[in-house]
Write a structure and sequence with these properties.
By secondary structure, the protein is α+β, with helices and mostly antiparallel strands. About 50% of the residues lie in helices and about 10% in strands. The chain has 21 helices and 17 strands. The strands form six sheets. A four-stranded antiparallel β-sheet has the order 4-15-1-16, with helices on one face. Strands 6-9-12-8 form a four-stranded mixed β-sheet. A three-stranded mixed β-sheet has the order 5-7-14. Helix 11 crosses helix 19, helix 17 runs parallel beside helix 20 and helix 19 packs antiparallel against helix 20. The longest helix is centred in the last third of the chain and has 50 residues. About 30% of the residues are buried.
């Protein structure tokens, strides 16, 4: 009987006697599996690192944004004769009210100045039944719409919660967009209204705050980006706001000594931290003016230009009501002269009252708002090629807002700094029947796992192609904050590819090892016959060759694992630091000091590759081994 030690000794002897054949087999098979092992380690390492950065960035949550999905109601036909007749009745009633009011105020009124309820296309190529259409901008249609509201389910926060709660959402957030306020940045806190700019806007005015892109969001969503308070922010001096690093550097370039953004990623991280520390607590001012006040400014500017153009003209008579532009930043227009007669004042006052009765508008308003920077939003660098470009795609962040006002921080301010009445001004609503009511903010839902977030997005998004099913979706959902779904998609899509390649590799390697083992067994027929002749059992002989096969497999495993580690380790050494800086900028995660690693060993595919090599070797040796131990030993010895 051949024991384990004997089996090992004999297997080792065969390995030494077939060294060149073994080396070739090990290298060829190991190369195939080593490349696959290296790719698996890289994919797993990248996935683990990106997930960790996203976890720190979003505090372990997976956010999904939802925007109302609006499609034209199927029952709305702007050329419907019955509907046109109804809207025309509303228009006639509206005109009657206007005429009666004009008579009551004693003013002249021309009904032709009203927006007509029906438009008519005179193009002969348009079918006759479609030439007349309802004018959705008319007062008549607005009144009709108000009296006949849509039967569609409102797409508000309640409806959004009803959609995402059953899908596993834990929290729903309601950001508030303030873009409709059109807050105007006042660089250096000054304002010049004497001229209208017609050239290229300054760099400051091209930033998010220069364009008035503010959004109020809960502190939870932006907590990682709020810088620690410092003496400059205690006590608070204005509305707290988070800016992008590029916007902050542009706006405060003249007041704070800030270098330009460097190209090197490591230098960009230092630059980002420098900008964050330099502007932390800095303030700037913006101005709010409503349409009524803007109209007065235009009138005052036109008067000033007219007076300047007629300077020295003795026949020129200045207006009875003379307006002056404000002399202080975000001030209001003032009246410097009013020589109107009592009768003219009465007529003009009656005209205003007449318009207010049918189209109430707020009084002219101007309000100066002071903002205070409390942190910076993620600011990924620009990368056009190479590993930086790939990483920029993977770690891309998108919060959908230009400048962010943390709502909890805002609420903690004293009344004099909060501007409650200003921020409470609602966005204008457009009741266009084709598009649905506009002006609603998007909603954000938090999910505890990527699987639940993926399910929610997959069942409520049209991706790139519209389909009838899209029309029935109340909201269009998508990943919010980071590209966590993109990363997860890549990993998911690579798994079947790797498995397919693994099957192909196993097949190729099995054929190679099978051929080698078959040759080894063919060369060992006499040896096997001798063992059988001296009393060795078939199981003893099988133990020798199984041990030999496992020994070969272990060599291939070691070679493949070493090659995989070399491939992944080389990539890690060359690009880990750059990847770390890219991810830090994209996620704005600097503390604790996170690092990006290309090395990951938790993927079961990696262990499947290494374990599969052993299984494959055993499978390869089984057929020739069975043939050998079943052969007649006397015949094999005679043949030799």
């Amino acid at each position: 009987m051949i024991g384990m030690r004997d089996a090992l000794t004999l297997a080792h002897t065969k390995i030494r006697s077939k060294r060149m054949r073994l080396i070739i087999t090990t290298i060829v098979s190991g190369l195939v599996f080593g490349v696959m092992a290296g790719a698996t380690i890289l994919v797993d390492g990248m996935s683990k690192s990106l997930t960790e950065f996203a976890r720190q960035n979003l505090d372990g949550r997976f956010l999904v944004s939802g925007t109302p999905n609006y499609y034209g109601p199927v029952d709305f036909n702007p050329s419907d004769a019955t509907l046109i007749a109804e809207v025309q009745k509303y228009h006639a009633a509206y005109l009657a009210e206007r005429k009666a009011a004009a008579k009551r105020y004693g003013i002249d009124y021309d009904e032709r100045s009203e927006i007509q309820p029906v438009t008519e296309d005179t193009n002969p190529n348009v079918p006759a039944e479609f030439r007349k259409q309802i004018n959705v901008q008319s007062v008549a249609w607005q009144r009709y719409s108000k009296d006949h509201p849509s039967s569609a389910t409102p797409k508000d926060a309640k409806a959004f919660r009803a959609l995402v709660d059953p899908l596993g959402a834990t929290t729903v957030y309601e950001p508030k967009n303030l873009g409709h306020l059109s807050l105007t940045l006042l660089p250096a806190g000054t304002e010049d209204l004497t001229t209208t700019s017609t050239g290229e806007p300054s760099k400051e005015m091209q930033t998010a705050i220069g364009q008035g892109q503010y959004t109020v969001v809960p502190n939870e969503l932006v907590a990682p980006f709020i810088a620690p308070a410092n003496n400059a922010r205690e006590p608070a001096q204005g509305v707290p706001v988070l800016l992008s690093a590029d916007d902050a550097a542009t706006v405060f370039q003249k007041t704070v000594d800030l270098p330009k953004r460097p190209k090197d990623q490591a230098a960009q991280v230092r630059w980002f931290k420098g900008v964050r520390d330099a502007v932390n607590g800095a303030t700037f001012v913006s101005c709010y003016r409503n349409d009524a006040e803007r109209a007065r400014i235009e009138e005052a500017r036109a008067q000033a230009q007219e007076i300047a153009a007629n300077r020295g003209n003795r026949d020129y008579v200045q207006p009875d009501l003379l307006l002056a532009l404000p002399t202080t930043p975000c001030g209001q227009v003032t009246v410097t002269k009013d020589t109107r007669t009592a009768e003219l004042k009465k007529v003009q006052d009656n005209q205003k009252a007449f318009e207010q009765e049918f189209n109430p508008t707020p009084a002219p308003r101007a309000e100066l708002v002071t903002f205070q920077v409390v942190g910076l939003l993620p600011s990924p660098g620009q990368a056009n090629s190479g590993i930086d470009a790939v990483l920029s795609i993977l770690v891309g962040t998108n919060y959908g807002f230009g400048a962010v006002i943390p709502s909890d921080s805002l609420a903690s301010l004293p009344d004099t700094l909060r501007h409650d009445s200003l921020f409470a001004i609602p966005a204008p609503v457009n009741n266009d029947p084709w598009m649905g009511p506009m002006g609603q903010d998007m909603f954000i839902a938090s999910f505890p796992s990527v699987e639940k977030a993926r399910t929610a997005v997959a069942s409520n998004s049209c991706q790139m192609n519209w389909s009838p099913a899209c029309e029935s979706m109340p909201f269009s959902l998508g990943a919010y904050g980071t590209n966590y779904l993109t990363v997860d998609d890549i990993v998911r899509q690579l798994r079947p590819v790797i498995l397919t390649l693994l099957i192909i590799a196993f097949t190729i390697a099995t054929i190679i090892i099978w051929a080698m083992m078959g040759r080894v067994m063919a060369d060992s027929r006499r040896e096997t016959a001798v063992f059988r002749a001296i009393g060795a059992k078939r199981s003893d002989i099988a133990a020798v060759y199984v041990t030999y096969s496992v020994w070969v497999a272990v060599r291939i495993v070691i070679f493949a694992a070493a090659l995989g580690l070399i491939i992944a380790g080389t990539v890690h050494v060359l690009f880990a630091d750059r990847a770390t800086k890219t991810a830090q900028l994209a996620y704005a995660v600097f503390t604790p000091e996170p690092t990006f690693s290309f090395l990951g060993f938790r993927n079961p595919v990696l262990w499947l590759i290494l374990g599969g090599i052993v299984v494959m070797s055993l499978i390869a040796i089984t057929p020739p081994l069975l043939r050998n131990i079943r052969r007649n030993p006397i015949k094999d010895m005679r043949d030799e």
